[in-house]
Write a structure and sequence with these properties.
Shape of chain B: elongated
Number of domains of chain A: 1
CATH class of chain B: Mainly Beta
Number of domains of chain B: 1
Structural class of chain B: mainly beta
Number of strands of chain A: 10
Largest sheet of chain B: 5 strands, antiparallel
Order of helices and strands of chain B: EEEEEEEEE
Strand content of chain B: over 45%
CATH topology of chain A: Jelly Rolls
CATH architecture of chain B: Sandwich
Number of strands of chain B: 9
Largest interface: A-B, 25 and 26 residues
Oligomer: heterodimer
CATH topology of chain B: Jelly Rolls
Chain lengths: ~120, ~130
């Protein structure tokens, strides 16, 4: 058995989240041998984002209904973002659905793309 | 034997460097058979922002700019300049031989050369030799 990293591309395309709006739930799956109970192997959500105006966006990110991030994003320039979150929020198995949702409670719109979930597996 | 990607979460919660010269030392271990030859380039990723708010004490308010030195096991990997008080992802690559691949601990150190910094979600991405 070997511990390796794996990832799931949740969303490649860009989407905009308006003030007071949300992205809708984006579904993804992870393998049944995912390692979810070690702090140093916690999953990571990465994405690109860019505020679309001079007003700040306030991103709230939920994974399967639980909040993992609450961050103010300002300045109209693209940047990479990522967030380490608790593995127990993920449901392993290709038949189990997980989802990630972006909400914007700020004053300005924000553009998001390239949403990826990174996690670890014990493969044989 | 395959060479595959692995990562270790070093620090999830935010840490603040509140004044010039302050540093934070974070320990971690890599798993067995981490590749430490010159063909492998690990990457240290983290979230960072340069707060512009003034803080008490001798450090001046630099208006949202920090020069952040990053050391791995005491060896510098370079200085990252972060401007604007807006969070963003940053990563830094370095030579794999700097990593301790045995059971001894590794350390990453963030040190403010000037300015204030908030850092979180520190992850080291590296390669391992794995038998499948």
């Amino acid at each position: 058995m070997a511990r390796v990293a794996d990832f799931f591309v949740v969303r490649r395309e860009t989407f905009d989240v308006e003030p007071g709006g949300e992205s809708g739930a984006m579904v993804f799956t992870i393998h049944s041998d995912a390692v979810l109970n070690h702090a140093d192997a916690a999953p990571v959500l990465s994405y690109q984002c860019r505020p679309l105006s001079d007003d700040s966006a306030v991103l709230r990110i939920d994974v399967s209904g639980d909040s993992i991030e609450h961050v103010t994003v300002s300045v109209n320039t693209v940047r990479a973002m990522w967030k380490v979150f608790d593995g127990h929020l993920l449901h392993p198995g290709l038949g189990a659905d997980n989802n990630v949702k972006f909400r914007n409670t700020g004053e300005g719109s924000i553009r998001i793309s390239d949403v990826i979930v990174w996690y670890q597996r014990n493969v044989t | 034997m395959a060479r595959l990607l692995d990562y270790v979460v070093i620090q999830r919660q935010p840490i603040d460097l509140d004044h010039t010269g302050q540093s934070e030392l974070l320990g971690f271990h890599v798993r067995a058979r981490a590749v430490t030859d010159l063909e492998s380039i690990p990457a240290l990723s983290f979230q960072a922002r340069a707060p512009s708010s003034p803080v008490p004490g001798p450090s001046p308010d630099l208006g949202g700019r920090v020069d952040l030195e990053i050391l791995v096991n005491g060896l510098p990997t370079g200085v990252v300049r972060i401007t604007l008080d807006s969070v963003r992802g940053v990563w830094r690559t370095f030579a794999a031989p700097r990593l301790n691949a045995d059971s001894s601990a590794n350390f990453v150190q963030f040190r403010s050369e000037r300015g204030l910094a908030r850092i979180s979600d520190v992850v080291l991405w590296y390669q391992r030799e794995v038998t499948l």
